[in-house]
């Protein structure tokens, strides 16, 4: 029996400015998915927000890229966007870039990460969701989790892991992908992943048996729309334990903050702040960019649930262990913001091509004289 975990997200409108998904929109998400669960389309779900992004976590048996599942997400986002329009919320429907559904939400605005798995005896899963950043924000932690023995002790100690992991890396500029195996091709992997604005980890497998361990969303909204249309706030699904990195090893990269692209107007480097769901809301300079993590156990095609049928979900970053990262992020946010629009606080000129800056530069074109 195969189980599919789908996390599909979309910014359908928010309160206030690009801050959070308000309750009426979360309720639309819950109601739609509850109905779909009753009809047997999905087996379990959990609706939450990563800042201004509505996140639909669905567990089912229909496989990846399934039309019915994607149609359910699309319909939910459309209904929520309608509500957002009625309430005059900010950016209502901002990520719904196409009008007619074509069978798959990929390339239509929403972000997607999906993983079809053969359930192991017990399969712990962590879903990561970030706001005000992009897919490149997973490069550093994915490398640390699946390739860095200083982070994941199991790479050294657990015989099931010593064969290493394979990384699929997407070149978002050329729309090409390559698979690199660690430890053998670790330096080449770092060479690519270090350019996090262009190359993104899209999938990870355990090398010895091709067990799928991680998937991320790698959408670039600007490449779909041809212009700056907000950030590509990413999601990822990661499997843990029993011959894979432990949940605890997976969280080591988040003990400290690290810099990601995004933040205000998708145009700045910002320190990533791991937060619990209650703090999943961007504030200062539309940030700092935040990441939440929800953990659960898959169970017979769904999420292990309590006696009332509620899925048992853990809010992983809601823990004092990540206070240091949060403090660092706050401090470094101050350092970067003191620099204003001066590089490296602002993204490189190449990355700024996908923002609204070129319009400003265009206006000055005729004022330039030969030097
Ligand atoms: C958008 C975002 C924000 C906006 C900024 C300006 O996802 O995260 O940082 O880019 O608030 O927004 P507008 O242009 O809508 O006023
Ligand atoms: Mg928004
Ligand atoms: Mg967002």
Note down, in words, how this protein is organized.
The protein is an alpha+beta fold and 371 residues long. The protein is 25% helix and 26% strand. It has 10 helices and 16 strands. It has helices spanning 23-38, 67-86, 139-147, 154-157, 186-193, 221-225, 247-250, 323-338, 349-352, 357-364; strands spanning 2-10, 44-50, 53-60, 111-118, 123-131, 165-171, 176-182, 199-206, 211-216, 235-239, 259-262, 268-271, 273-274, 290-299, 302-303, 314-315. The strands form 3 sheets. Strands 5, 6, 7, 8, 9, 10, 13, 14, 15 and 16 form a 10-stranded mixed sheet that branches. The longest helix has 20 residues, at 67-86. The model has no long low-confidence stretch (mean pLDDT 94). It binds fructose -6-phosphate and magnesium ion (2 copies).
């Amino acid at each position: 029996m195969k189980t599919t975990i789908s996390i599909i997200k979309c910014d359908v409108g928010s309160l206030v400015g690009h801050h959070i998904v308000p309750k009426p929109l979360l309720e639309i998400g819950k109601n739609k998915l509850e109905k779909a669960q009753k009809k047997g389309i999905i087996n379990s779900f959990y609706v939450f927000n990563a800042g201004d992004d509505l996140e639909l976590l669905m567990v089912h048996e229909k496989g990846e890229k399934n039309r019915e599942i994607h149609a359910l997400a699309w319909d939910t986002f459309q209904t929520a966007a309608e509500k957002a329009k009625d309430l005059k919320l900010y950016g209502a429907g901002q990520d719904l870039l196409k009008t007619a559904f074509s069978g798959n939400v990929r390339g239509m605005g929403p972000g997607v990460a999906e993983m079809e798995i053969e359930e192991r005896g017990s399969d712990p899963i962590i879903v990561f969701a970030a706001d005000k950043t992009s897919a490149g924000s997973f490069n550093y932690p994915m490398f640390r989790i699946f390739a860095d023995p200083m982070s994941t002790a199991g790479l050294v100690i657990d015989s099931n892991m010593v064969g290493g992991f394979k990384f699929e890396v997407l070149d978002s500029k050329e729309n090409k992908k390559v698979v690199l195996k660690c430890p053998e091709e670790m330096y080449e992997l770092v060479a690519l992943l270090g350019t996090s604005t262009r190359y993104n980890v899209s999938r990870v497998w355990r090398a010895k048996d091709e067990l799928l361990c991680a998937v991320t969303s790698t959408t670039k909204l600007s490449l779909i729309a041809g212009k700056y249309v907000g950030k590509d706030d990413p999601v990822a699904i990661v499997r843990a334990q029993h011959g894979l990195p432990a949940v605890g090893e997976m969280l080591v990269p988040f003990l400290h903050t690290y810099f990601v692209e995004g933040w205000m107007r998708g145009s700045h480097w910002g320190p990533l702040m791991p937060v619990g769901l209650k703090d999943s809301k961007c504030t200062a300079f539309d940030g700092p960019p935040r990441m939440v993590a929800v953990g659960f156990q898959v169970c017979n095609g769904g999420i292990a649930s309590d006696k009332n049928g509620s899925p048992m979900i853990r809010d992983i970053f809601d823990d004092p262990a990540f206070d240091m990262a949060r403090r660092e992020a706050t401090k470094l946010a101050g350092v970067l913001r003191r620099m204003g629009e001066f590089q490296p606080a602002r993204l490189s000129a190449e990355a700024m091509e996908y923002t609204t800056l070129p319009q400003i530069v265009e206006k000055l074109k005729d004022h330039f004289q030969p030097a």
